[in-house]
Amino acid sequence: MHLLTLKDLSSKEVEELIDGSLEIKRNPGDYEFALEGKSLAMIFQKTSTRTRLSFEVGMTQMGGHAAYMDWRSTNLILADLRDEAQSISGYVDGIMARLLKNSVLKKMAEASTVPVINGCDEKYHPCQIIADLVTIKERKGQLKGLKLAYIGVHNNICNSLIEGCTKAGVKIVTVTPVVNKASVDEALVEAAKATGLYEHSLDVKAAVEDCDVVYTDTWVDMEFFLDPKFKKEKEKRVKTMLPFQVNRKLLKGNSDALIMHDMPIHRGYEIAEDIIDDPNSVIYLQSENRLHSAKAILVKLLR
Length: 303
Prior knowledge:
Layout: H1 11-26, E1 39-44, H2 50-61, E2 65-70, H3 81-89, E3 94-98, H4 102-111, E4 116-118, H5 126-140, E5 147-151, H6 156-168, E6 171-175, H7 186-195, E7 198-200, H8 204-208, E8 213-216, H9 231-241, H10 248-251, E9 258-261, H11 273-276, H12 283-302
Parallel strand pairs: 1-2, 1-3, 3-4, 5-6, 5-8, 6-7, 8-9
Helix pairs in contact: 1-5, 1-12, 2-12, 3-4, 5-6, 5-12, 6-7
């Protein structure tokens, strides 16, 4: 079994991963040897902080081993992907890949003889969203019946949030004035609409009204934020998105909503400086829960 997108999981399996993450967090000692003798190849085309640490530390704390592989310093950059993927899967019990293209990830999964986990690509980020749902349930005590407002660019995070929320019984309203063309998944959106739990709006004030969670993300993908070739597009996006910044004025009157951001944060852009450390901010808890959710994913797929 692979985990390339949350489409791969049923609602029950999503729930089991969330509850499994919380169980592992509460009782880490019970999982000290859960992956003893197991190895994970971690392949990175994209930069990473939380994905690398969560999977590497997770494997170590459960008695396993993780091998970091920079795409550019391996023969993946030179050879046929299918050959390399099948070869790598002969050494390890699982592969976690953080790649630029979902199409490449799918080819890798097709060739691999061991489970492949999507550590992020331009279309989906399933591991992040499991951690997000874990965080919401940990703080709110439930998921079904809650309302989440996502404010930002329609990107990979937005896609996986739509998948995860609708499968977990959370109503999601997306406020996305800008759409990443590379992230478009029309079938995903249509499936979400059919659940009755998905709505799109450009009325940001109405979207956050009575919501339980306000979620935002970077307006410019990390690989382009400092790229001079992307300067004009960045300026255009900032101009378009600034009225949609998550700040105190927007959240006025909705003091109970959790504030979330998957990181890395660009302070003063998608979120105001003072909101990051607001009492309702769970951004760093959200980050910490990447570790516990990674463990639950690893246990499900490798054990």
